[in-house]
Amino acid sequence: MSIQDRKIEDAGLSFGVSNLTTEKIQQTFKALIDNETGAKLKAFSESCMRCGMCAEACHFFVSHDNDPSYSPVGKVSATMTKLLAADGKVTPEDIYGMAQIAYTECNLCRRCVHYCPIGIDVAYIMTTIRRFCHQLGVTPQYLQDTANSHSATMNQMWVKDDEWVDSLFWQEDEAREEFPNIRIPMDKEGADFYYSVIAPEPKFRTQLIYQAAAIMNEAGCDWTMPSMPGWDNSDMCMYSGDFEMMGRLKRQHFELAQKLKVSRIVMGECGHAFRSIYDNGNRWLGWKDYPVPVVHSIEFFAELFEQGRIKLTHKIQEPVTIHDPCNIIRGYGLMDKLRYVAHQLCDNIVEMYPNREHNYCCSAGGGVINCGPPFKKVRVEGNLAKANQLKATGAKICIAPCHNCHGGLEDVIHHYDLGIQLKFLGDLIYELMEKPE
Amino acid sequence: MNSLYNFAVGPLAWAAFIILAVTAVWRLWSMYSLAKQKDASSVAYMSWKFSFRSIFNWLIPYKSLGWKANPVLTAVTFVFHICFVVLVIFVTPHQILLENAFGITYPTLPTKAADVLTLIVIACCCYFVYRRLTNATVRFVTRTNDWISLGLVAAPFVTAILGSWSVGGEIMPLLHVLTAEALIVAIPFTRLAHILFALFTRAYIGSEFGGVRHCKDW
Ligand code: SF4
Ligand code: SF4
């Protein structure tokens, strides 16, 4: 199927494309190739054997009846290959299709790398197409809205500065009933770490801040949460192709940690934010190492368990399965730590296959879920593969330590009527830990 | 005819090898300079250890997910590449050419064995053609360049086996030499460029997965 046969109406894409001319497209493309891309893109483009071995890697391909246009190489062929062959001389209509492919039909999950003998990183090529579309002003409306929010407020969800502080006070207040001495220390200088979250936490899942506070307090941590912009570690600009803004976001996040003189940053259970720190944002800023050490919640929780700082009343007995989020597992190798923490909490873990760094993506990652309702169907139907995986475990609980995965898997579970409950590690720790009488 | 043949295995062969050497070095060098200039944030993560780890693991058939998911193609790919290299080095006429030019001697394949390997290579090429036509994904992405590369690879082997069977008389050995030279010259400019770049792309992605992503890339 060609992309034109499955064109989805999106206000952002339509508007962006309406401002384009073939000349402008070509000029922008040439500038991109001359100024931003290099040997990586060239070597990938020239060495791809078009063998199609990567096809089966991709959940979009598998779930859409092995439709070639959803295969990794098929997507490259309809975008970068076409652009390079035409030296950027394509029509605005072509750009619409390319944007739809790059933004909504690839999760940048990199599973295809495990299938390509040449070692071609299709996710990198799709990211480059997104960068190009961003430079042309052709981005899906919902995704662009989050990018705009980042640049206007330094957080993803248009959370105003006072609303953020209010949310923290509110959660502290709520939690007092259960934990009379609880504090969410704000802007505490020199604390052991600052805890950063993604903006959807105060906006939609405020209970996660409550739970995190409960865990930190019970474990006796010396921690703080910042009141100032920079508290949000998320980064949709990385996915929209607005790398200038991506750099600003990461810089602010780190500078806040330096201002507060904390020893490290602990990041909540999110995958993409972590990718932005270890893989994309840091490189854009030209940093090989971080100015302040950063750990993901999985690592942090593992540490608390190793030090015996969390006491549990019991463990979950029913079968529980684990979803491995691409960005922290295939992206950062936390699979063993994740299992260590999960086994602390549950007696009966049923693995799904393939798993660990070979897992299938939740189909929400890479900013795809942030492209909003117009593209929900393709994303959910594009993940029959995951639904089958989940079903085969027979588990009724699934641990997924990532916000994006929660969003994506919730839709999958609902659509395929799987009756599975999704849990963050924080949910389970909070649920199982000893609390004051 | 004879003088034409001598010209083909003599000056023309030299020319082909020199063109290959010069263009290959130039392509690798310019790719390296481009990488240093534009991909510094990727080059910074290159590591010998993870490069070799990746190359090693991908050299084992059926080790990676990709090899596992494509069992027939994997078998054909390995057999094809191994026979290709063995034939290029170990058929008697090639050794004789090397001996005449540089005085290098080493044991070679008996004619029968060489014929069998040549037929295997041709069979592999037939499979690649078949797959390009019948596999929907591969058909979807195939461009003229892919057919040209495949044709360039197959031609020297087809002419070699026909020559060995004395089909077409004296023209066949000449065609063999000419097609082989075409193949040699085409390497840096077609899909066959993977011969030059694949080790490096593999090394790069291996370094990223090993050093940055702390997991396997196979
Ligand atoms: S979704 Fe994942 S497997 Fe599919 S093309 Fe994108 S990076 Fe590759
Ligand atoms: S597996 Fe690699 S070389 Fe083969 S088509 Fe896919 S990207 Fe190209």
Question: Could you give a quick summary of the protein structure above?
Answer:
The complex is a heterodimer of chains A (437) and B (218). Chain A is mainly α.
Core attributes:
heterodimer; A: 437 residues; mainly alpha; 20 helices; globular; B: 218 residues; binds iron/sulfur cluster
Protein model, in words:
The complex is a heterodimer of chains A (437) and B (218). With 437 residues, chain A is mostly helical. Chain A contains 20 helices and 7 strands. Chain A has helices spanning 11-18, 22-35, 39-47, 59-63, 72-85, 92-104, 122-136, 141-153, 161-176, 200-203, 207-218, 237-240, 243-259, 272-285, 297-306, 335-345, 376-381, 384-393, 403-415, 425-432; strands spanning 193-196, 223-224, 264-267, 294-296, 320-322, 397-399, 421-423. In chain A, strand 3 (264-267), helix 14 and strand 4 (294-296) form a beta-alpha-beta unit. In chain A, helix 6 (92-104) crosses helix 7 (122-136) and helix 9 (161-176) crosses helix 11. The radius of gyration of chain A is 22 Å and the shape is globular. By secondary structure, chain B is mostly helical. Helix content of chain B is 80%, strand content 0%. Chain B has helices spanning 2-38, 40-43, 48-58, 65-69, 71-90, 92-102, 111-134, 136-141, 144-164, 171-186, 194-212. Chain B is globular, with a radius of gyration of 20 Å. The N and C termini of chain B lie far apart (51 Å). The chains are: A mainly alpha (437), B mainly alpha (218). At the A-B interface, helix 3, helix 5 and helix 14 of A face helix 1, helix 4, helix 8 and helix 11 of B.
